[in-house]
## 1
Amino acid sequence: MTQQQTTGGDVRLTGISKTYGSFTAVHPLDLTVPRGSFFALLGASGCGKTTTLRMIAGLEEATTGTVSLGGRDITALPPHRRPVNTVFQSYALFPHLDVTENVAFGLRRRGVTPVKKRVAEMLDLVQLGDFARRRPHQLSGGQQQRVAVARALINHPQVLLLDEPLGALDLSLRRRMQLELKRIQTEVGITFVHVTHDQEEAMTMADTVAVMNGGRVEQLGAPADLYENPRTTFVANFLGTSNLIEAEIVSAGTDVVVSAGGGTLRLPAGRCPAPTPPGGRLLVGIRPEKISLDPAADADPDDGRNRVTGRITEAGFLGASTQYLVESPAGKALQVYEQNTGHRRSLAPGSEVVLRWDPAHTFALDAAQDMEAGVQSVQDTP
Amino acid sequence: MTRLLHALRRRLVVIAGLLTLAYLVLPNAVVMVFSFNRPNGRFNYTWQRFSLDAWKDPCGVADLCGSLSLSLRIAALATLGATVLGTMIAFALVRYRFRARGAVNSLIFLPMAMPEVVMAASLLTLFLNMGAELGFRTVLIAHIMFCLSFVVTAVKARVMSMDPRLEEAARDLYAGPAQTFLRVTLPIAAPGIAAGALLAFALSFDDFIITNFNAGSTVTFPMFVWGSAQRGTPVQINVIGTAMFAVAVAVVVVGQLVADRRKSRAEK
């Protein structure tokens, strides 16, 4: 037991894939989850993230490739022999057992003692000591969720797998449980692999996020890195919001100059996908909160920042900030988020405005991609 | 008058419920009352006077207790056989995709749909053609056969509503295939299996038609009652009937009490 606690290892997936008949759920995939980290698999439903998780748990057999844990190949092991535990979507608590017996289930199967003392300690950790004799259906959603976490964690797995564990909770409870899970992970130091479709959840909780799309990992990195330096349109759109502008390269030096919508924009050469020959095409991207907005009349002349003029078509007041939609030659619906600092009155739809941003905040993507990839429409949100 | 009508209307559901209940319970009440009768002559059809004679000597009629114990043994074995087989069939039908699954799924209802007398006659033909000796064994085989479809139906409904993730969770928590089945699958399916078993017991215990065709010289309790009704009905039949009714009610009441206690303890 103590040995397991101290010798957790990296999860390493090598060339792992899953096909059902002619449908490929996960394309051959290499992934290493460092020991002790909080790792998130992020993607829309059907992107293969849950299948990947289930292959680590052993609940799904990999079509090709191997799963190893701390250097040991566990591909051929059935789920009950893997030192891995899962918190299931909608929890899968045993309805015929009370909270204590649910939590004790793994200990009893392995003959670990003392069961009662360990269960009591675990229930205290998740603050459910008073509910030990309840049945799952007598608990609220948040309580059930904590039982599910306790039932998995009590076994001190080398890796804890979480399959959309917060999906069934309401928003405020979900926020609280995010912090709670993060606290528990820091406290126990176990590797967490977390599957979610909620990009905010992934960014708040995880050290490393792998963005999955169509059975492939699109990009992997720290949340801030993914947000600032998306490498595909899918990542740029799925993680937060991006303004993508089609542009043609004019010249390339330390700064790349592009023309878009009748004007020119600049960005550092380091933020372009190589190579950048003049005449080549790019998608230039800028996050909505990086843009500053001024009425066209007040705008200073050229100050070295990228500059686009347009007209506000929509303004949405959100309390702390206002979201604007701006129509311009560079893009039909550029989004701008402005903090309501009160330094000037908010702008009304119809106003002529100048959008400006630092060239260093500009990123560029390969133009041969679908600009709309990863944009979340109303139907996508579960 | 209008007031009375109004009060009546408000209690209409209760009144209708009570009347229906009386309709259901009345025959049992009559059986119970007549178990304390001392009839003049051989037929226990008119009330004469109160007596405990039959209760003091329930086996006082020749062959009655023999037929009763035979029926209980057949019912117990038929329930066991039908429950084990039916549970396995139900799991197979819900969990696995195999050839002719659809056909099995509908054929399993055939014994329920077919008129019992037709089935009884065809079974007899089958047994005679096979050269089987009619008796305990042929009755048992017949009972398991017609109880099967009821068990399958009851268990299938339960298994279908079971979340397959519960078994995955068990496997994930170090339970091997056997442990998963014993600790999770079986307890969760248990209410369905119990319902199926109870149904099988009741059906087997009081079956007359199929049994009568296939029993040879063996006499089960329903056959005994039928036979004696031709030449007089001993009060002991009412005693046995009342006792069975009491046992059934007791089982239901105890079950309810246990469930209530478990619930209130959990909420403390």
## 2
Amino acid sequence: MISVSAVLYTTSIILILLGLYGALTRKNLIRTVISLDVIDLGVNIFLITIGYIKDGRAPIYVVGSGSLSDQAARMADPLPQSLVLTAIVIGFGVTAVALTLIMRLYEKRKTVEVSETRGLKW
Amino acid sequence: MVSPMILIALPLATAFLIVLIGSRVAARWLALAAVALLVGLAPFWFADILRNGPMSIVLADVLPPLGIAFGLDALSAGFVLLIAVSGLLVLLYSVPYIPHAGQFEGAKKAETRYYALFLLLMAGSFGLVMTKDIFNLFVFFEILCISSYILVAYSQEERSLEAGIKYMILGSIGSAFMLVAIGLSYRVAGSLAMNDIGLALAAAPHGYALLVAVLFTLGFGIEAAIFPLNTWLPDAHSSAPSSISAVLSGFVIEVALVVLVRIGISVFGTLMEPALGVLALAGVVVGELAALGQKELKRTLAFSSIGQVSIMLFAFSLGTQSGDWAGLGQLLMHTGAKSALFLVSGYFILRTGSHEIESYRGLARRMPAAAAFFSLAALSLVGMPPFFGFFTKFRIIEVAAAARSALGYAGIVVILFGTVIEAVYLFRIVRVLYGGAIEGARSDALVGIEAAAGADGATPFADGATQGALANAAGSLASAATPTRADLPALAWIAVAGFVALVLVGGFAFPWFDQALQPIAAALATL
């Protein structure tokens, strides 16, 4: 029986690698940004999986249904979830800035393809 | 004593206030006032820490391990002082400079945002040096990165937009690596405090700790411009407005480097040091050689930053306290010299409208003060006695020799080689500045006017090209004779003089600086 977390870890690593491949190979800047979002998604799934426990419950203490330590043992770890919330907000900010910059570049150049010769010159 | 949390709270609050008010004048004064206040407070924190030892900051009365861990020790207090002072000087330069940096629609409105973003960048830097919590490290890192992506693209020219996008793509990949490293650390430590993670990783399997260390270094190394990860730097630092280049080269990469080294030492153990040493030497060679081949002034300076940062990284990677000490000296020198160089080159670009080194021929006669500042800073960067750079480079070589390792000896060779290359390209620029072509330029302009006037005689102002030639010739004559347009007031020169003074005082009062750096170096290896 494959555990849920194994599936999630595998998914997240595949997503991260897929996104990396896309970000490094695509010439279209919009696709690059989408690839960056795919990486973000993979990382977020990875972080969530760290706090996952089988049949876990929300980390809320309910009076009268067992001792605190008993309940705590079945609670999912809330900390990675709060990290992911922060990471999602930051990812949103980066995407917004990225699209704005690309929009401005499009106004100048009328294309969203990266020029291979210019930007990468040493 | 005011809590050091004001270092983060005040710039953030002022940045939001600036955007809310939306007035250029208010933005300038608010930003200057906020940073000046921090500059005033920073020495007191530093003195307090030297007397009473590290300060830990408890937020909202939540004690560790539950609260968010912040702390100020000799290293972070020293950096707070450095960031605040350079921030203030660059802001003084920005006030007259920025209206010229962006010639696009809505530039006046954008100028208020420049100050807001500048303050966010400073808040991010302060946060990075103060945090003891690895997730907050990520958050401040992102604040720093996002504000610098936008600032790099500030002028909205094609090349700066492109540089900003490139910087952002690499930066985002880096932060994804960092997040994975943070997740892996949390998985093994069950806590986000760096102390706990350090202990947990020491007990974890070697491969696991190495994986975390490599991912973290990949993520953070992009911002710290460690050799193979620094392809964004020359574009970003050369296409940004010069005030921002000064900040990015002056303290942003240094802050990232020191935070990386510090976490590398105290959280990941000494796993990474030899590898970082090798990468640093590769960075010196590649950075300096690439700088040699550049035709544009700011690109040359940006590549030289790669070389200089790699020299610092080499000193840190020796893993001795005297190595850290020498590296910090080099860092302080580089902040002074490179900030001054970028600020002066901003002025050159403003006055000549050209980025190419060749077009600055004979500029020293028109702008003697600017050329003198540039030369002093360049001499120090190369390491000429009696400037600061001589002592710091000498110290690094001394320390490398004392290490008695193959890497140490290789380092001496590479740093001396790098210094020779540095001397070649920086002296080339200085020679162009002091070259005697000004008479030639003036007579060229006169010939141009005569030719245009002669053409006019035949067909008076019928030819658009003739008028253009006349205007050009008159323009070059005007700029050769009495340049007044787009000049920077004394305010900007206070900033440049401040950075140059650091380089000069550092040279003449080196023993004093040396003493001041010792507690900071001692703090580098601890958390």
